[in-house]
From TrEMBL, chain A:
InterPro entries: AAA+_ATPase, ABC_transporter-like_ATP-bd, ABC_transpr_LolD-like, MacB-like_ATP-bd, P-loop_NTPase. It comes from Streptomyces triticagri. The lineage of its organism: Bacteria, Bacillati, Actinomycetota, Actinomycetes, Kitasatosporales. This is ABC transporter ATP-binding protein. The keyword Transport applies. Pfam families: ABC_tran (PF00005).
Automatic annotation (TrEMBL), chain B:
It comes from Streptomyces triticagri. Residues 7-76 form the Transcription regulator PadR N-terminal domain. InterPro entries: Tscrpt_reg_PadR_N (IPR005149), WH-like_DNA-bd_sf (IPR036388), WH_DNA-bd_sf (IPR036390). This is PadR family transcriptional regulator. It holds the Pfam family PadR.
Length: 228, 174
């Protein structure tokens, strides 16, 4: 049964890679403006779940609905358009284009959807200010610290006004202090923009920034909201 | 840790004398702190009074009479309730959690479920501390961080124990 008011819902997801079962009847749901942590040990299937939810990987079975539309019923072009305009992404590292400055990196998703350069960079700079890294706007990713780079990535994930941000171990490469600041800024910015955040993490202190958690183990998911 | 619940859990696999109970407890849980006989007998008389155990038989010997205790239905329900309810997250919980996991495995209950529920309880407290930190001043942040790091250590233990459940089940049922 689909929980009422959910923005993104998955049911009965299965995915195998050769002999390995990554997902085995996994489910998920999230509301607008909600942050849900996806937890579980390495290899449990949590990243595969995120990739399926984001339409990057097609599950072998099961359904995913975003705002009432089924992802599997869309064409590749429609799914790509959805990812560009409605979804934002943050990964552990290696996500900024090294040849572009930080402000150009943040403006990139807007440029890809046809926004004029000047307007795109103005909005990008606004996000860099919110993430407290506007001082690195003209620098390239190789010239900034890990914590600054990750804040730039957060700004880029939010610049298009996405309805869902997918964050896969967003603080995995950062020290405690920088990791916490990134989580504070990410969750506050997402909440004020009413964006949902799917947060894959194995770190409890990062998961503590979520509203609730689901646990993935051996490809199966468990919603812990009513477990206690 | 609740000695009463632990002794009850040990009785689930079959009736035992007080002495056997003490020996089983010491072997499984009392590595650095064995039970005193007095604790066993005072606990058993309380459990008897509360209807959680019954006397299954009395053997007369040279010394005092030896009572054999059996768990009652109410006792089984009581153990089940204890194992299913998460512990209040606080430092140095490990011995109670370890006892619960071992007893769940010994009595055929779902130890993975117990650990999942405990993790959820820990995260609930971590969320409250994170929220307090978010709104608080530097002193609040430092105090909350201390608690958060301790809770995180517990959670790491929970994860590792979850990963080792198969191994532990073999060891405790050997």
């Amino acid at each position: 049964m689909i929980p009422a008011g959910s923005l993104l819902v998955a049911e009965g997801l299965r995915k195998t890679y050769g002999p390995t079962t990554a997902l085995d009847d996994a489910g998920f749901s999230i509301h607008a403006g909600e942050t849900v942590a996806v937890m579980g040990p390495s290899g449990s299937g949590k990243s595969t779940l995120l990739h399926c939810l984001a339409g990057i990987v097609t599950p072998d079975a099961g359904t995913i609905h975003f705002d009432g539309r089924e992802l599997s019923a869309m064409s590749d072009a429609e799914r790509s358009a959805l990812r560009r305009s409605e979804f934002g992404f943050i990964f552990q590292f290696g996500q900024l284009v090294p040849e572009l400055t930080c402000v150009e990196n943040v403006a990139l998703p807007l440029r890809l959807t046809g926004t004029k350069r000047k307007d795109a960079e103005r909005r990008a700079l606004g996000w860099l200010e919110r993430l407290e890294v506007d001082d690195v706007a003209a620098k390239r990713p190789g010239e900034v610290s890990g914590g600054q780079g990750q804040r730039v990535a957060v700004a880029r994930s939010l610049v298009t006004g996405p309805r869902v941000v997918f964050a896969d171990e967003p603080t995995g490469a950062l020290d405690s202090l920088n990791g916490e600041r990134v989580m504070q800024l990410l969750t506050e910015a997402a909440r004020s923009a009413n964006a949902a955040v799917v947060l894959v993490t194995h770190e409890a202190r990062v998961a503590a920034y979520s509203d609730r958690e689901i646990v993935v183990r051996d490809g199966r998911s468990r919603d812990m909201e009513h477990a206690v | 840790m609740s000695i009463g619940h632990t002794l009850l859990g040990l009785l689930e696999s079959g009736p035992r004398h007080g002495y056997d109970l003490k020996r089983a407890f010491d072997e499984k849980f009392g590595h650095d702190k064995p039970l005193h006989y007095g604790q066993v007998y005072s606990t058993m008389s309380r459990l008897l009074k509360n209807g959680l155990v019954e006397v299954d038989g009395i053997e007369a010997g040279d010394g005092p009479e030896r009572k054999r205790y059996a768990i009652t239905e109410a006792g089984i329900t009581d153990v089940g309730r204890w194992l299913a309810s998460p512990e209040k997250p606080e430092p140095y919980l490990t011995s109670t959690l370890y006892t619960k996991v071992v007893l769940a495995l010994l009595t055929g209950r779902d130890a993975g479920d117990l650990l999942d529920v405990q993790r959820a309880e820990h995260l609930r407290m971590m969320r409250a501390l994170t929220e307090r930190k978010r709104k608080g001043d530097l002193a609040d942040q430092l105090i909350c961080d201390h608690a958060l790091f301790h809770l995180e250590a517990d959670l790491r233990w929970l994860e590792l124990t979850t990963a080792r459940l198969g191994q532990l089940a073999k060891a405790v049922n050997a």
